[in-house]
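seq:
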Amino acid sequence: MKHYKRVLYIILAVSVVGIVVVLVNANGEEPAADVKQEEFAYNVKTMTVESGLEYSFDISGNVSVGQSAVLPAEARASVVQVLVKPGEKVEKGATLVQLYSDSLESSYQNTAIMLANAQVSYATNQAVSGNSIEIERLRFQNAEQNYKNTITQNEILKSQAEQGLNSAKLNVDLSTNSAQTALETAQKSYDKTKAINDSNEQVARIGLANSIRSTQTDIFNGLNTSNELLEVSPLFRENINIDTELIGRRGETEKREAEAALKVAINEYVALDISYVAMASTSRATEDALQKTLVVLNYTDATSNLPASVISGYVQTISQQLAMLRGDIAAMDSANQALQTTLAANEASITGVKQQIEAAKNALAQTKQQSGDTSQLVINAEKQYQATLAQLKSAEDNAKANVDTAKLSYDNAKKTTNLSVISAKNALLTTQDAMDQIKLQREKLTIKAPFAGQVSNVMVNLGDEVNPGSQIVSVENPETLKIAVQLSDQDIERIAVGDEVGLGNSTGTIISISPSADAITKKYAVEILPSTEEYKLGQFVTVNFLATKPDSFNKIFIPIATIHLGANENFVWGLKDDRTVKFPIVLGDLQGEYVEVIEGLKSGDEMIADGGRIIENEGALVKTIAW
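struct:
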């Protein structure tokens, strides 16, 4: 009501001023008719309508140390070093107390073993993957090369067959020179066929040699691993990290069988002749030794000197090496079979070309002996031509089928081995993450100063046992200051970290707001960083907060003094092209010097905030002046 009365007094004063002006004009002289009067412009100040309503309030606060921390233990541990005393100055990052945890250290050692096993598994999977894929790639490459050679060779043979047929169709009176030319052509065909056969044989022998070398490497790795556990030969790797007497203690018979098999395989490997037959025998002896070593591991009990994780790691390693060796054996057999097939095909093709040469020689002889009778020669040549085309077509189809089969095997090898590598990689990453977490926990056993300052209290002694959350040491920095205040739940919703507050002649910044209220006072702690260092510890300071009412965020509030009250409507003056426009409004609740506008205005509208009281009509010319 106080504000409404003020508005009515202002309206009454304006009305009196208006009457006086009218009387003065009535008693004055009429203006000259020929003098043009300039339109009067009202000087006004404007404002832009915005939603929300800001207000301020004061709270008394207390100046305290700006930086302080009580450092707790984060794991169950024992105190092994106390490096500071109360009152001692420390630098940021300085070690204050050192803790030690038996369980954490045991977890670290076990995880380190698991990580090493995971790394070995990943490396082995990569090797197996690369070897398998390379074997299938070489097989696919050989099949493609064989197909290309078959096509090339068939073109030659087709040409030869056509030449034979055409030669047969020639007049039996063909000259000796023509027959001689056919023989020379057959001889050239023989030379080309032999060159192609030599190329095919070289490709097959290279494939077998590569497979033999790969098998030799995997045999060596398998014998090394098996000898680590059984130690039957000084020529291969021995294990200095574990007591090999613990291996296979529950299976003496199986262990003796494995040792005997390993000796046989090692003796064959030492006397190994780099040939398919010798490598096949040695690889199968090694396969038998690895298989029996796996059986021995199944008769091995885990002990503190031989953890289950180590036994599991050897089982996994030997299983993978056994799989690789079996893959090598299959690949080596396949490569040898491919070589034998190539040699047989080469023999068949060279025999066919030799037959062509013999046929050309016979034709030359017949040409010299016969005259006129050609019918039977043409018939025989046609049959031979058709038979040759059928044989060539079958050879091409078989070569193409071999390419498709090899391609499918190659693609499958890439898919399956990649999945195995990905699985091993995921296991390695999981173990690495676990190791990183344990390392982080170990680092937390070293209690360090979070900032430079002074030790205010040490809550533990050497040899103490502490639990998670136990207070270890407290540190504070008396050279820094902060102001602490307590706010109600209503006020706490209207401020945020980073807001600026007033501190008398200076300012400060809100640096923290407690997420929960004090159980007794039901108020929230707020900390403020002053912009100056003029305060002293324990001093009381008045803090001025400028806040926004949360229930006014989407509402329009304007000063009461800008409202024009009428009998039928309430309005404010707006502007359009420097002239007044009436904005009829509907009023809501009062908030101090402001009143809510329910209808008639929106955010962004420009209205007259000062100087509009003496304006009576819409369309009046105004001049905006600065505040």
